[in-house]
Write a structure and sequence with these properties.
By secondary structure, the chain is of the alpha/beta class. It contains 11 helices and 10 strands. It is globular, with a radius of gyration of 20 Å. The structure holds 5'-O-[(R)-(carboxyoxy)(hydroxy)phosphoryl]adenosine and zinc ion. Zinc ion binds next to helix 3.
């Protein structure tokens, strides 16, 4: 089935066309307008999506050598995400589905991150997915495609958010994860002590806000030139603390479920230190190429194809769900 996927939940405008778990074309525009603010500005995101969505869709059709009439279904990210940004994508998708008289399906963005695994690998269910992004940190047992047990989640900040806030405090560019990872490559991960929260909480939940506070307190105590000279060590130590906090709970989940197949998805899954430490757990790691870790429309089209082929679709009256969870 030829499915057009649309993703506009945050600061990526993306359009992909997928058929039979194969990518026919994919277009993505990462908004640059937010960089100078150190984080995503919702109103600017919506306006930029409006500008870019139409031309990107045109290019996606042209790259795939298809006309709009060739599309058999539309899949769109309907939440979680920024309300204005989601409205741009879903309204556009509804218009397209109406004009072409084809089914539409509202896709949960988090589920999309997991579905990229189905496109890339023949991974049997059940498996564990660690979904780590700028807005979410979820440890999920994928019982079957479309059936999830959320085993753990963050009590406060998401893992990517921790990287973004730390980068801002250190004066590094947004998004923070790649900036910190780059610096950390030349730093000592044991140079500074950062807390690993929730280790004894007796559940599989995470917490990252204490880590951010610890960094801010530490920066207050250091002299400016000390911070500048030891930036790589600070970045490496901070990254290690985020990664360790994730690894401990993932290891517990592997033990609890007896599942040795682990998928690492979401923007933070691009982090090489995290990948390395997951591999050291003795599990089989499924980590997508970086372009499929961060937000993209291929994952939305892929989830859409799965549901639409089963005859599942959404009414045209569906609403966005800015706080949509996995269950
Ligand atoms: O999945 P994503 O593109 O958007 C959301 O759904 O949130 O994830 C973006 C997040 C940002 O917080 C960014 O700092 C983080 O992923 N990120 C990374 C890396 N690349 C992106 N974090 C750590 N290391 C990276 N290499
Ligand atoms: Zn995402």
């Amino acid at each position: 089935m030829i499915v057009l996927g649309i993703e506009t939940s945050c600061d990526e405008t993306a359009v992909s066309i997928v058929s039979g778990r194969k990518v026919l074309s994919e277009k993505i525009y990462s908004q640059e307008v937010h960089a100078k603010y150190g984080g995503v500005v919702p109103e600017l995101a919506s306006r930029d999506h409006i500008k870019k969505l139409f031309p990107l869709t045109r290019e996606a059709f042209s790259d795939a050598g298809l006309a709009p009439q060739d599309i058999e279904g539309v899949a769109v990210s309907a939440g979680p995400g920024l309300p204005g940004a989601l409205l741009v994508g879903t309204t556009f998708a509804k218009g397209l589905a109406t004009a072409l008289n084809i089914p539409i399906i509202a896709i949960n963005h988090l589920e999309g991150h997991i579905f990229i695994i189905r496109l890339l690998y023949d991974l049997p269910t059940p498996f564990l997915a660690l979904l780590v992004s700028g807005g979410h940190t979820e440890l999920v047992l994928v019982k079957e495609w479309g059936e999830y047990d959320v085993l753990g989640t963050t009590r406060d900040d998401a893992a990517g958010e921790a990287f973004d806030k730390a980068a801002k405090a250190l004066g590094l560019p947004y998004p923070g994860g790649p900036s910190i990872e780059k610096l950390a490559k030349n730093g000592n991960p044991n140079a500074f002590e950062f807390p690993r929260a929730m280790l004894k909480s007796g559940d599989l939940d995470f917490s990252f806000s204490g880590l951010k506070t610890a960094l801010i307190n530490m920066l207050r105590k250091l002299k400016k030139n000390e911070v500048e000279n030891r930036l790589a060590d600070i970045a490496a130590s901070f990254q290690e603390a985020v990664v360790d906090s994730l690894i401990v709970k993932l290891a517990d989940a592997v033990k609890l479920t007896g599942t040795k197949n682990v998928a690492l998805v979401g923007g933070v899954a691009a982090n090489e230190r995290l990948r390395e430490k997951v591999s050291e757990l003795g599990v089989k790691l499924y980590a997508p190429p970086k372009k499929y870790c961060t937000d993209n429309a291929t994952m939305i089209a892929c989830a859409g194809e799965f549901y639409l082929e089963k005859g599942v679709s959404s009414p045209l009256t569906f609403s966005i769900k800015p706080n949509w969870g996995l269950q």
